[in-house]
């Protein structure tokens, strides 16, 4: 019953995470578009009111007129009907951390820890997880403070910081958990930017405007900087959110580098849209981003498997010249069927993962390609809890190649 309820908690939290994530990223994309699309007003009265720029838009049968004031309107009260954008960010982070709790902290032994990477207790692994998330924000925030006004250097160092975190996590956790922690860390940076820098600064500016005091524009400059960072984080974070369905990426022997390349491609593609809003169509950015992805796909492409043993298997091991269906079924029933069964007997599973049952030759043949790819990537068995050997993986790969 506990596993059943945890599955429902996972499903509902994931659903919530997607809903509020769409709201947050949608709002972020909209305001980036708005900020980069505004043009100077042609009316002198607007300039006297402090209008920095404006945008006319049409959508859903209506016409909209947006105006931007850097430090609020001049010689007129600030409307009490002031919309704040922050609940989307907070809800996305809270639901994401809820999933972290349900999947990676409660299920630390299955999903967070990989003893072939580093032997940890659940308490140690969870403590490291929390520590990485919190410390990464502190380091990032201090970089932003120290390099205020030096945006290009800061952007480069932030990227280096994230890649260093990416590499370090792959030396500690399971590959899947490492990916998700990079996403959680970037998401934490994004929400902390909103909660600790953007919104407090805007509240100070609003208070000054309403009190009739001179407005300090520095909080707005800082908020803009952090908002720009957030928009470049979005595509990498979105990729990480869906990456758990594609072990070919995170289970690669250089999974940290795969993620680095994909994140960089996302940044280049996002840059194109940012510039496009400014009326600059610099096609080099998306072309380079797509080229990075194509090069990665080619570099990661598996060789057609015909050799009797995969790479990195003990060269002194006996050569495999033939593998029967019965041999493979025996391996799968020993190493996989405790979870992939009509009635799993492994603790924490009440239903077969993804509905895949591997108890009969027909079921194994039906899922042959998927079984071979996930086992070859070492994503399965989870954290190799059933201790599948390299020779057994080689037999399954050889058998699948002969199908």
Automatic annotation (TrEMBL):
Protein name, entry field? Cytochrome c domain-containing protein
**SUPFAM superfamilies, per this entry?**
Cytochrome c (SSF46626)
One Pfam annotation reads Urate_ox_N
* InterPro entries, per the entry: Cyt_c-like_dom, Cyt_c-like_dom_sf, Urate_ox_N
Q: What is the lineage of its organism?
A: Bacteria, Pseudomonadati, Pseudomonadota, Gammaproteobacteria, Thiotrichales
Name any one GO molecular function: electron transfer activity
User: Is tRNA processing included in the keywords of this UniProt record?
Assistant: no
State the UniProt keywords alphabetically.
Heme, Iron, Membrane, Metal-binding, Transmembrane, Transmembrane helix
Q: What superkingdom does the record give? A: Bacteria
Q: Which residues form the Cytochrome c domain?
A: 320-403
Membrane-crossing residue ranges in chain numbering: 12-33, 89-108, 120-140, 152-173, 179-199, 232-250, 256-275, 282-301
Q: Does the keyword Plastid apply?
A: no
């Amino acid at each position: 019953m506990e596993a059943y309820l945890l599955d429902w908690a996972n499903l509902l939290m994931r659903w919530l995470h997607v809903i509020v994530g769409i709201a947050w990223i949608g709002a972020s994309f909209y305001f980036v578009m708005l900020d980069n699309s505004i043009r100077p007003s042609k009316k002198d009265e607007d300039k006297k009111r402090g209008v920095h720029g404006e945008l006319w838009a049409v959508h859903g049968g209506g016409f909209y007129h947006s105006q931007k004031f850097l430090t609020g309107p001049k010689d007129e009260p600030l409307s009490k009907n002031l919309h704040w954008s922050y609940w989307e960010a907070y809800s996305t982070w809270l639901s994401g951390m809820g999933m972290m709790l349900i999947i990676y902290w409660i299920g630390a032994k299955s999903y967070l820890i990989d003893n072939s990477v580093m032997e940890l207790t659940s308490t140690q692994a969870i403590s490291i997880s929390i520590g990485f998330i919190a410390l990464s924000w502190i380091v990032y925030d201090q970089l932003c403070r120290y390099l205020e006004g030096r945006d290009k250097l800061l952007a480069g160092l932030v990227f280096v910081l994230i890649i260093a975190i990416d590499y370090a996590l792959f030396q500690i956790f399971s590959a899947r958990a490492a990916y998700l922690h990079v996403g959680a860390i970037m998401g934490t940076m994004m929400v902390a930017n909103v909660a600790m820098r953007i919104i407090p600064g805007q509240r100070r500016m609003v208070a000054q405007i309403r009190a009739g005091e001179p407005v300090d524009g520095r909080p707005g400059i800082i908020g803009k900087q952090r908002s720009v960072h957030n928009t470049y984080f979005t595509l990498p974070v979105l990729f990480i959110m869906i990456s758990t369905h594609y072990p070919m990426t995170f289970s690669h022997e250089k999974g940290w580098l795969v993620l680095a390349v994909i994140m960089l491609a996302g940044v280049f593609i996002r840059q194109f849209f940012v510039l496009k809003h400014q009326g600059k169509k610099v096609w080099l950015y998306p072309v380079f981003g797509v080229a990075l992805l194509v090069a990665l796909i080619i570099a990661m492409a598996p060789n057609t498997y015909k050799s009797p043993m995969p790479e990195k298997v003990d060269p002194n091991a006996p050569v495999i010249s033939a593998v029967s269906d019965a041999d493979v079924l025996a391996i799968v029933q020993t190493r996989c069927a405790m979870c992939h069964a009509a009635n799993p007997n492994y603790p924490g599973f009440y239903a077969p993962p993804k509905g895949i049952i591997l108890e009969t030759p027909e079921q194994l043949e039906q899922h042959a390609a998927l079984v071979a790819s996930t086992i070859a990537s070492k994503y399965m068995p989870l954290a190799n809890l059933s201790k599948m050997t390299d020779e057994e993986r080689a037999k399954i790969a050889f058998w699948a190649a002969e199908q």
